[in-house]
Amino acid sequence: MASPKSAAPEPPRVSPTPLPKPAEVVQYDFRPPASERPAHPTEKPIKLVQWNIERGYKLQAVIDELRALDGDVIALQEIDIHCERSGWADTGREIAQALGLAYAFVCEFEEIWSPLRKADAQGGGVHGNAILSKFDIVNARAVEHTTHPINWELPPAQQPHKLAAQEPRTGRRLTAAATVMTPAGPLLVYSAHLECFCGALARMAQLSDLFRDTRQQQAELAAAWRQREGAGGKEEGEEGEEGEEGAEGGAGGGPRPPVLAAALMGDLNTLANGVARLSPNYCTDHLRWSSLGWFEAELLDRLVLPVRDTEGEGGTSPAANAWAARQGLPAAVCRDLVNPGYADPFNARSDITFDHWKYRYLGLRLMTGKLDWVLLRGVKEVVSKAMGNSDYSASDHKWLEVCVRL
């Protein structure tokens, strides 16, 4: 007997408002009028918060946690707009509105509604990353990545990665970037979510794009500073004094341009350890085995971050990351994979931010790692740091908090 045909899948809801396209920026400002905002003295530390909110499945719990944290600058990943899996909510906007913050969202993907998707992954809307702040957000933009190990434009039948085929979408990995105008000065902020369906080397290539962007932003700041210095008080034969922004010790012994303060925050998906190493879906390059005994986060900590661009410090910078070149990464990527001054206040091995419940067995935790990062550049002091959501009740990631003086 022929089996009855299954019922046709329910069509997706139609969004009441137009949805953004990949690389499109959406901004809102839910702050009270400037005259009603509490003062933030310039000497008061800036509280940075990083969190992957797991699509906002538990949106109210996320809002409650963020309200208690009271962050000044917040980077969030896995923001859903009008997806069935997250109750059709505009999760980022609801968070910003509830907390009374300025908000910038960068769309990465159009999440196609499809019977191929499981209920907890069902789409119908869009997905991306966001930056929220108590302070003005300017120059919000999408940073393009040059390496895309998954071609998300392929239809499921042509998608070679079997897990990617189960979540049809269009778009690409993009990082949200903006300048936040803090009372202590501008802060360049990134909210990144690197690819998970690849190997460590592809993620390093994506990180190199953010290093390159930081150098470009620093170069623009330096050019503007030099222009101001050139137009400054030398018209009447003065020697010119070092401004507050400048620093002694340039190549000619004079003042140098200021260092751009930056916070590169995000879920960098540094997960190639534990049982993930056994899966060709999550570990697709030779480091899957050649880095045995290391957490992927340790590869960044020991082999990428120490390769520093020291030109601004009066030193000679390496032309490229030689270790990355030996692993077969393209020359352009190796040139970009030179750290423009970022430092990590957390421990790459012991500060676990992800502990997947599906892989806990007889007291063993088989899929853990430091996936989430707050990389800092040009800050005067790290005052404190913390992690939370340790029971993973609001999201499958911990949040990170770092208080800094700029």
UniProtKB/TrEMBL annotation:
InterPro entries: Endo/exonu/phosph_ase_sf (IPR036691), Endo/exonuclease/phosphatase (IPR005135). Residues 236-247 have a biased composition (Acidic residues). It comes from the Eukaryota. One of its GO terms (molecular function) is catalytic activity. It comes from Chlamydomonas reinhardtii. Residues 49-397 form the Endonuclease/exonuclease/phosphatase domain. This is Endonuclease/exonuclease/phosphatase domain-containing protein. Residues 9-21 have a biased composition (Pro residues). Gene3D superfamilies: Endonuclease/exonuclease/phosphatase (3.60.10.10). Pfam families: Exo_endo_phos. Residues 226-235 have a biased composition (Basic and acidic residues). Residues 1-41, 222-258 are annotated as: Disordered.
